[in-house]
Amino acid sequence: MDRLKRFLSDNNVYYNENKKASEFTTFRIGGECFAVYPKDEAELIKTVSFCKEFGIKYIVLGCGSNVLFSDKGYNGAVIMTQSLNAVEVNDGVIKAGCGATLISVCKAALDNGLSGIEFAYGIPGSVGGAVFMNAGAYGGEMKDIVIKVKAYSASDGKIVEFNTEKCGFGYRESVFSGGGYIILSAEMKLTRVEKTEIKAVMDDLLGRRKSKQPLNYPSAGSVFKRYPGRYTGQMIEEAGLKGYTIGGAQVSEKHAGFIINVGGATADDVIKLIDHIKEVIKDREGIDIETEVRVIE
Ligand SMILES: Cc1cc2nc3c(=O)[nH]c(=O)nc-3n(C[C@H](O)[C@H](O)[C@H](O)COP(=O)(O)OP(=O)(O)OC[C@H]3O[C@@H](n4cnc5c(N)ncnc54)[C@H](O)[C@@H]3O)c2cc1C
Asked: Which pLDDT tens digits describe the chain residue by residue (297 residues)?
């Protein structure tokens, strides 16, 4: 990492070599990391291409709301996109930097009387993270609104533009989930609707989240993907696993699809709990459920 430190210092890119993943993930779990904070696209690209050239492991992160970092930390660079947060509204299209929060995009949409992204109000992620996994809720998904994504291809150093089709959106996945691309920005096409209507939908969805989700505990949202035609949370609840606890990790009493950190949970606690849930569901239902949260080691 000394080489990376020299490079970042020479290029005035801010970094913090003693950051704990528990400080920047919504699970509040994870050990020491070398965090890099590019202030714009140029610095982000420079940092990624340097890591690539010198074989330094790296991961680009948005809000850290869909990841579980190891307690041992991460032996590489964790590149944070939070400064790439510009949001521009132009004639029904919102263009947002990868680090813009979904909340800020939703607010811009509301201020401009633009509808279509209400589903994302309350998802605590960034535009980059949401495009990466085609985030969705309450019948809406990123794929319904994204018309263009600008990404950096780490393998050949090119900037590539993807239209909706090329994004390869599927259920909680996209062409970007395979790795290799850094999402720089996305354009979303919305429809003009009365602000009061948009606000009513956002308030309703946020209210539903507050009443159904354990938002007073650290978590990464729903841990498992939905199994075709089945709600995973419901299967977990029917298996009697609500409240099941390993160390500081617990199946939420409020929403069985969530694993919450009730205090001092380690990544190992969460992984053991995930494995236990998978085993129980396999025994009861004969199916393999898949994790949505990404484990970072
Ligand atoms: C309380 C709670 C509720 C949630 N509700 C929902 C929900 O309703 N629906 C839903 O879909 N999700 C939900 N989530 C999960 C999560 O918020 C979303 O998946 C969100 O889109 C992740 O964005 P992020 O910026 O936090 O991604 P991160 O966790 O930072 O990253 C996730 C993955 O995306 C990659 N990534 C991030 N940015 C980039 C980039 N610029 N370029 C390339 N790769 C990138 C990372 O490398 C990582 O692999 C919830 C989470 C919580 C904690």
From this structure: 999 999 999 999 999 999 999 999 999 999 999 999 999 999 999 999 999 999 999 999 999 999 999 999 999 999 999 999 999 999 999 999 999 999 999 999 999 999 999 999 999 999 999 999 999 999 999 999 999 999 999 999 999 999 999 999 999 999 999 989 999 999 999 999 999 999 999 999 999 999 999 999 999 999 999 999 999 999 999 999 999 999 999 999 999 999 999 999 999 999 999 999 999 999 999 999 999 999 999
CATH code, domain with 95: 3.30.465.10
Collect all residues with Cβ–Cβ distance below 8 Å to 262 and sequence separation of at least 6: 217, 245, 248, 249, 250
Please indicate, yes or no, whether the overall pTM of this predicted structure exceeds 0.90.
yes
User: Annotated active-site positions, please?
Assistant: 172, 222, 292
CA–centroid distance, residue 148 to ligand 1 (Å): 19
d(CA 72, CA 61): 18
Nearest to 83 by CA among 151, 119, 35: 35
> Which of 36, 59, 65 gets mutated to test ligand 1 (max ligand atoms within 8 A of its CB)?
65
Range of the domain at 266: 214-296
CATH classification at residue 245: 3.90.78.10
